[in-house]
Records
---
Amino acid sequence: MRIFLFIAALFATGSSHADWHYDKQAIMGTEVHLQFWVDDDSRADEIKRAVMDEFRRIDTALSPYKEDSELSRVNREAGKGAVKISQELADIIQKSLYYSDRTGGAFDITFATLGSLYDFRKGESADIKTTESLLPAVNYRHIALDREQLNLAFKDPRTKIDLGGIAKGYSVDRAIGILQRFGVQNASVSAGGDARLLGDKRGKPWLIGIRHPRDRSKNAAVIPLENTAISTSGDYERFFIDDDDHRVHHIFNPATGKPTDTDAGDTGSDQDKLISVSIIGPQGFDTDPLSTSVFVLGKEKGLALIEQMHNFEAIVIDANHRMFFSSGLEK
Ligand code: ADP
Ligand code: MG
């Protein structure tokens, strides 16, 4: 009898008890993962929908693979003259240009002038002649952004942009903003290599794994984190191995117009070549472009940049598979 009453009481309170909720969807060419705690279960589905809709909205605007995205329109038209753009696109381009300045051009969204000719699934890359002829069009200084009038023009008609090095970090920040508006205090949101954590895991830190860059089944490290963002860039996400045994991957050196050299024993010093970079900092809008930047800069210049920046830390793995930390993590 007592058991029966207990069960009845459970039903009477409906589903409004506190619990963890999960969702996972394929958006932006990657998997978006969401985990959050709510005190009132009845809003969980609404929250999931709002977060995933925001990822889809941003993808619709910024995808280079969707012909009717704002980004695709800009890439078709801005080389011919100024085009009107949204406040959101202007803000993301402005942030990208800030990191181009700050990194001496290592972060450069005009890499896409050549990058758009690569297809990692099909194993296609730009040939040497095309690379040489288009290289002058890869330069963030060709981007003329008028933030007052919301106008954008490319000074070289061949220039194209791609926001793949910053859009996912921006999106996880937007997702966290939505969760906060719903009153959520503990959450984890990730889109591929970009994650942002809200609060802790209710009394414990979140445990974030950094994948082993050459063994998908292993973690190279697991880091306890709370209330922060972490972005990882690696040469193992999108790549193919070409006929000369070189790894052709999705992070470009704007100075050469080609993917950075991450092959051990090849040109340059293996100690300076990075194959995985993780950046920890307050928001994805910064950690995402910084992980790409440090990857291109290499270990010495990359870690020096992070040392200069307040509130940011780095974990990097070189071509010899050795791991290094910025000074704030070594303590
Ligand atoms: P992901 O999370 O997709 O692995 P990363 O943060 O590692 O992304 O950034 C890689 C993406 O950034 C590439 O897929 C490309 O869209 C873009 N990208 C590549 N090289 C550069 C560069 N030098 N500057 C800015 N963006 C870049
Ligand atoms: Mg990045």
---
Amino acid sequence: MTAPTTYRFSFGPWNISEGADPFGPDVRAAFPHDRKFALYKSLGFDGVQFHDDDVVPGLDQLTAAQIAQRAGEVNQTLRNEGLVPEFVAPRLWFAPQTIDGAYTSNSASDRAYAWERTRKCVDIARAIGSRAIVLWLAREGTYLRESKDARLAYERLLATVNQILAYDREVEIWIEPKPNEPTDLAYVPTTGHAVALAYASTDHKRVKTVIESAHALLANLDPSDEMAFALAHDKLGSVHLNDQNGLKYDQDKNFGAANLRAAFNQVRVLDENGYGRRGEFVGLDVKTMRTQAGSPVVDHLKSSRRLFLHLLEKVRTYDRARVEDCRARRDYEALELYTLEHLLGVS
Ligand code: XUL
Ligand code: MN
């Protein structure tokens, strides 16, 4: 029997935030970005998720040499702290050139900006020792369907994936699907769309997904099934575990906070399928509540990690023979009661 997986955890520096939302300003003092790295290990995290400008702030205004220098410094900081850069994602939703999308913008000069920025992102990833590029396709969609040619948009997304694969033959691309926010209707809303794009690419083994629990829920899909689908295709590069209370704005709640049973099933699917054995991280993408005082705020990260480990214990003590027996007898009432009582600790 193979030994149980020992999981490594990651989060991105944006998970420690000042608490602003669209209806109000910061509610906490900013905690200096560069000091966040020193927090990871003591919180139980080994991996850092990055946007390109989390590594090199203001990179659009910098020369190639300046970008390389700052990336080198971050590389050194990571080494000093014993941290692993999990991935780098181009932040393609902040610039004036990307207000109507980046790779799928109708404007040729906006698309040229998007490619330049993506190329810089790949260079930054390599400079800090990461070979994974996450594409959260934030504004690749529309507010109204008549504003873009959807088929052309898919072709442009595929062309970009191929362009990245050709630009650097070592990197993997992990597409993070999300059905809406900030666009009304996104072009890559689900895992199925991302996996289809992967297979259509010139080197599909290097194109995978990041599945975020809340994003799957926003598409009214079950996150554990999305993960199982990606795993069946060997296309789960990483996960962004969190939670979401129904179909509303993207909440990034603590893992398990809205639906403990759904969280149990995510951990179950990951653990049953050997996720993490090839170094994949258990990534979190969680926000603390706006009401939380202090700086830095880190309890949500500690809690989500702790919840994962509690649920892992539940997964590993789940009586598989009993489950198989219920399945064989098709007694799903008994299976449901057993599962719920196991979660409650009364079985
Ligand atoms: C947005 C989201 C992003 C990506 C990285 O909803 O989840 O933070 O994870 O760009
Ligand atoms: Mn995410």
